[in-house]
Amino acid sequence: MSSRYAQTPSQQQRPANSDSGYGGSVEDGDREFSVSVLPGQSSDPERRQWASHVHQLYFNQNRVALGRWISRTVETLKNFQTANSKWPATYPAVQRAEALSEEAETSEQPRLVTPQIAQEFNVLKLDLKLGALSPSELVHSLEKSSIASLLDGKIGQSVKHLMLLRDRIEDTSSKVLVTGDLNAGKSTFCNALLRKKVLPEDQQPCTSIFCEVLDARENSSVEEVHAIPINGALYNRHDSSTYHVYSLDQLEEIVVENDVYCQVKIYVEDVRAIDESLLRNGVVDIAIIDAPGLNLDSIKTTAVFARQEEIDVVVFVVSAENHFTLSAKEFIQAAANEKAYIFIVVNRFDNIRDKARCQRLILEQVAQLSPRTHQDAKELVHFVSSNAVIEGKDGAKLKEFDELEQSLRRFVLEKRARSKLAPAKHYLLNVLGDLETLAEVNINVTSAELEKVRDELSTITPEFQKSVQARTAVSDNVEVTIDETCDNVYGFSRKNISATIAHIDDKAIVEYDGVLSAFAYAEKTKEAMLQKIQKSVTICEEYARNQTVGGINSMKALGIMHLGDEYVEKAFRKELMFSRKRHQLSKTIQTEINIFDFFDFDKQEKVAGMSMGLTVATMAGGQLFGVSSWIDGLWKATSMLGPRTTRKLIVPALLVAGAAGAWFLIADIPNAVPRKLAKKIRKELEAMDYIHANSERIMKECRKVLGFPAEELRGAFQRSIEKQGRTVEEKKKLEKESEVAVKYFGNLLREAREHKGGVMKLDLEGPPSGTTA
Ligand SMILES: Nc1nc2c(ncn2[C@@H]2O[C@H](COP(=O)(O)OP(=O)(O)OP(=O)(O)O)[C@@H](O)[C@H]2O)c(=O)[nH]1
């Protein structure tokens, strides 16, 4: 029994796990046409074919749309790979570790992120199996760049996988595996599908290897058998060393009790028209694989075979007489888990007398073995007699088989949507979901980084500008400090040394022990005078030291104020100033004592009160005269007295005068010596510009010594400003990079969401609503 059934419009939106219904509506430009196959019209082959074609159209459109989304996602991933190399993407932190490990077990697709890290991730999980650290700890312990390179690898893998999926959805071949109990009539069923006796049929179990029947056009339209040896190389039609060629007639010899070959490829000419043929139906090129009958030994082999990626559909042939054997039940249960749905052919139905009872019993069993198959039993469980098909005598049986064929073709197409398009859709959604999560996380991270760097810049930029200004101000300040200190020291020295020199003869500085030790007196006086001057210089130097300390301290204060910890002060020892080249006046001064230093002829008038000679003259002449005016007076008196009197008086007068003068001069020695020596020293010092030279020497030492901390301070400022400048530049660069990254991840998020939305809209079992892609 099998019946055509209708697809009502309300059924067109099926839940994803529903397997029923092949109708639907498709918008093709302005034209919308609905597909419905009504029960009463089930015999109408045109309508059936049309329904089938529309179904194929949906499939094709979905396939193309999915292919486009794959290409776009690949492009997005590649761009992300490039961006990731410039701006290492941040990885999300761990949240729900347990939930993830379950998820990981259920998926065998390549993933970019390990389950323990970032549960939201499906594909872009990083595989981290190093050492004792948990992957999450490991991710956090890794350099950003190592995560980036791991991610880079994962993106690469993902791109590769997407390419494979694209190839797979573009592959138009589909394989139908026909399996079932021993002798159930599998080979007969395959031959019926081909409308040609190709595979050997026998009362005895005979098929011992997998026989794949393909359209001869795939073998340059040559009908032949390619037998693939056990343990041979991978089959390649273009490489004749990978198989042995036999004719179709020889098939029986190879297939029955074979221990040389593991599989045969049978290329046959399809005798039917394209819209009738299962092997080539315009959309999918179907290969039929006749599997050896199941026994407890072969279940595993067949189950493994059925799991193969290229097997789109499993057709299970069961004998109506035997129902399901133990091995059949075992296989169906396993296959139902793997492929979700299987197509069940209950063969040899002609041998059953109570057909209704048989149907009921078998459907009950199906319900137990695969509830989902049972749910859609009208489409998926067919009761036929395969042996009647090729002869084509029994019209009713032929019709039943014809309906089975139509169902099978729709099933293959639908299964292809599931087996080829659905994994691609599923994987795309996972990758895009991962990209979305990564983009979201990175938007947060990069936005936070941007905000942080902007904050920092708003603090350090004005600080930097302030430092630059402060440097100029401090530099000026230092100059002023040095100049003022030097001016001060120079002024002080000049004043102090001048005053000392001016007053060195103000009072007798050594004791006078009489005329006999006059020379020693002179020497001691000179020595004392030089010492006095020397002492005043020393005082100036000490003053300069203290002033320098003051200058240094004010520079230190500037350094600490502006540079804080960055300013390292150097120890200063003021006693080292003027220590290398000591000033020794006694060595510089040339002044020698001579006889004239003892007598001061010029100073008699000015120093009247202290002149003994003057006292004598006053007493003698009753007049108040100086020595010179006294001699002048004498001269005048002699001219008044007339030459003769003068001539008479001159000798005694001169004698008196001489005696008085000599006495006076000798008495004046203690005063004359300091005066004369002071005069001489002053003269010499003046000649050598002693006061200025010394003041300048002292000042220069100050300037030199102050120069060191000044340079230190300038250097520290320079370093500090350069450092700040570099930080500002780095932060500015980071700011720009962050801006680019924020923008990039924003775009990535938008793109990932757009793609995801588009992919989600694709209804793989209905009209492709995402065809705008
Ligand atoms: N009455 C009847 N006999 C059938 C039908 N289909 C197949 N047979 C017969 O059942 C026997 C076994 O058929 P095969 O097609 O060789 O069975 P098989 O499942 O391929 O056998 P193995 O591959 O060896 O397990 C043959 O003699 C067929 O003629 C059917 O629908 N009705």
UniProtKB/TrEMBL annotation:
Residue numbers spanned by region Disordered: 1-47
Membrane-spanning ranges: 649-673
Residues of the Dynamin-type G domain: 170-441
Keywords, in A-Z order: Coiled coil, GTP-binding, Hydrolase, Membrane, Mitochondrion, Mitochondrion outer membrane, Nucleotide-binding, Transmembrane, Transmembrane helix
Bilayer disposition of the protein: Multi-pass membrane protein
Main localization of the protein described in the UniProt heading: mitochondrion
UniProt xrefs under InterPro entries: Dynamin_N, G_DYNAMIN_dom, Mitofusin_fam, P-loop_NTPase
SUPFAM superfamilies, per the entry: P-loop containing nucleoside triphosphate hydrolases
Catalysed reactions, as listed in the record: GTP + H2O = GDP + phosphate + H(+)
GO MF, any single term: GTP binding
Biased composition (Polar residues): 1-20
UniProt subcellular location: Mitochondrion outer membrane
One Pfam family from the record: Dynamin_N
Highest taxon, organism lineage: Eukaryota
CDD domains according to UniProt: DLP_2
GO biological process: mitochondrial fusion; mitochondrion localization
Gene Ontology CC: mitochondrial outer membrane
PROSITE patterns cross-referenced by the UniProt entry: G_DYNAMIN_2
PANTHER family, sorted: SARCALUMENIN, TRANSMEMBRANE GTPASE FZO1
Protein name: P-loop containing nucleoside triphosphate hydrolase protein
Highest classification ranks of the organism: Eukaryota, Fungi, Dikarya, Ascomycota, Pezizomycotina
